[in-house]
């Protein structure tokens, strides 16, 4: 056999497995290639350097020499691994050294179990359940949208209806006053609508306005108070007082209720 040359020995060393880093694909997928590279290096170091509690030290220069990762990059990756719970770090000893401990249970939990879940196929029951949830969620979303649309339309209709009813009160109340008192007030007048609106906001109805008009017309027509048969007075702050006022029949002198006033022809 030919004598093995220095060149052959060098090539042989380069081709040996000990000259290469072996990275686990699942670890790389879970935490990235650089973090996986550094973690693998620390795992190999712990195999021969860790004490009974699993602690071992590794300097930044030695890690940089083995991995090519700068001190800044190492610190960033170590912080990430620490936050994940995969790696523990403590500075201790004299002179102070950086010690590490690897949590293999956490690696299994974060890396391999997650990968198992990704690779596992859901059962028919799970698929049906998920399908029902998706349908339920979509159906509920559509239902909520429909309810919201109906609610908005209902609110729009109610607002318009209330507005129309209020406009009717303005016009009918003023027309009724003009009819009873022989006046010519306009329902479009700002001063008139202001007082009517205030009473509407208090909750009074068109019938209440007509009742007040009837009572005060029967009391003030053909008297010095006739000039006060106007919206400003009738529909003003004393509206409630006028509404609850008792009517005295001129011939009998007996107070009668509001309902009974409708049967009485005033002036008889």
From TrEMBL:
<dbReference type="Pfam" id="PF09524">
    <property type="entry name" value="Phg_2220_C"/>
</dbReference>
<dbReference type="InterPro" id="IPR011741">
    <property type="entry name" value="Phg_2220_C"/>
</dbReference>
<protein>
    <recommendedName>
        <fullName>Phage conserved hypothetical protein C-terminal domain-containing protein</fullName>
    </recommendedName>
</protein>
<feature type="domain" description="Phage conserved hypothetical protein C-terminal">
    <location>
        <begin position="174"/>
        <end position="244"/>
    </location>
</feature>
